[in-house]
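notes to self, project folder thing:

trying the whole complex as one job this time. last attempt i did each chain seperately and stitching them together was a nightmare. four parts in total, labels are on each line so i dont mix them up again. if this works i'll redo the older ones the same way
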Amino acid sequence: MMDKRKLNADHSQPIRGADVKSYGGFCPVAKAAEVVAERWTPLIIRELLTGSHRFHEFERGLPGVPHSLLVQRLRSLERAGVIERRVVKDARRPEYHLTAAGQELSGIVASLGEWGQRWMHQTIGPKDVDPKLLMWDMHRRINLDRLPDRRIVIQFDFRGLKQQSFWLVLERPEPSVCFQDPGFEVDLWVTADTVALHNVWMGRRSFADALDEGRIEVDGPSDLARSFPSWLALNTFAHVPPANRALADSKLS
Amino acid sequence: MMDKRKLNADHSQPIRGADVKSYGGFCPVAKAAEVVAERWTPLIIRELLTGSHRFHEFERGLPGVPHSLLVQRLRSLERAGVIERRVVKDARRPEYHLTAAGQELSGIVASLGEWGQRWMHQTIGPKDVDPKLLMWDMHRRINLDRLPDRRIVIQFDFRGLKQQSFWLVLERPEPSVCFQDPGFEVDLWVTADTVALHNVWMGRRSFADALDEGRIEVDGPSDLARSFPSWLALNTFAHVPPANRALADSKLS
DNA sequence: CTGTATCCGGATCGATACTG
DNA sequence: CAGTATCGATCCGGATACAG
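result (full assembly):
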């Protein structure tokens, strides 16, 4: 069946529906905020920037987003000219891609993340963890070139999480993550304290320290186990150190 | 009377209440978006960056924000460690200032504005205008050093707006704007088509063209009238040209 | 002036169930 | 898989009244 939405050959003006709640006025910050600063929108753009293009990928990367709200947001962003919905021929599922306008939001989203890592996220506590989301982020940030030239399967077990295992399937062209046993032979087993692995992933603790303290354990062939830490590219913002609030405030006085 | 909120000597962690609706998880973009991407928040930060520090100034710069919602947002931002509420001695009114964390949002807000001006704001139509807001923005962006060394009062009349005049009182240390006749002797009278003046202010039309077309008229002593355009620093984002959407899209294909 | 405290209609959000 | 439909709960916008 054909897609009924029109193809909008005229792009001389942004495509705006009446769905966005306007601030009124002429301020460009307000105009941008109407589109970009709505709930969930910055995270949808983050997902697009990190490689998600399909509806179910957004749902994986945005745990808790209501199904129907995600549809709304995608339509909204499409009308605002930030994303483009492509119905690829011979593929049943549509793909979403950033337009040129959308790609120019990458700096803003990156700055948001840096600011968040610097000021709002000085350490990661039990309330901040989310193993599924961690696994999803990990599969997007793997140094594939550090891996042997074959498929490597890693099983993750989080301590305290009852019965829940995850599998990282590292292969070309793209790693994937499974929440059920994919049936492949497992090359490495990682057992970790949930909070500790999050802190390592976010650059707040070193992998080596977590190993020494026994918070992370890697089992399997020793050559693989030794190189495993180098496979992890860590979170995009792991390199951003926390701000020293005490210092910052004293500078102000 | 003393302010009951505690002074929070310990700033090792951000001060967080339970008011912000959390996205959950550990993503720094999400943590930042919880604080910064709530409705009205980017505009409150814009106001702080452009020189507003008092409650009534925020209300002027944020037309339409509900009185009580503004209070909520200010508390929210204070708890998040983005702004600081100062009760200055011998002043009845508190002042709001950006903390070090808040100041580091300036780049994000600036980028938002540039993006908005570039993509969402290619021309300004009748729905985008707001004379009060325009006057408020103007009084914040005056090249005082181009002015004679005395108080200059300008009366603005927008064509089509019934009976509504505005006055710009240009004096040191700070210009001010009046929505009622301040009673000063007027030095210059500006009569303008509302949309045209907005377009000039946003860098979308030149002042000279608007004069030539008769959309803006300046009456008063000719030396003042001649130098008047140079007093206007224009909107912060007036220098940002619109993107060429047709070109951008063709590059993508 | 800077709040606090209401109230109310409507929009938005979050959760769930249903469809092709 | 990618949506629609629906339904409470919450939030927002706008108004008003009032206190320090």
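what i see at first glance: Chain A has a mean pLDDT of 90.
need to look closer tmrw
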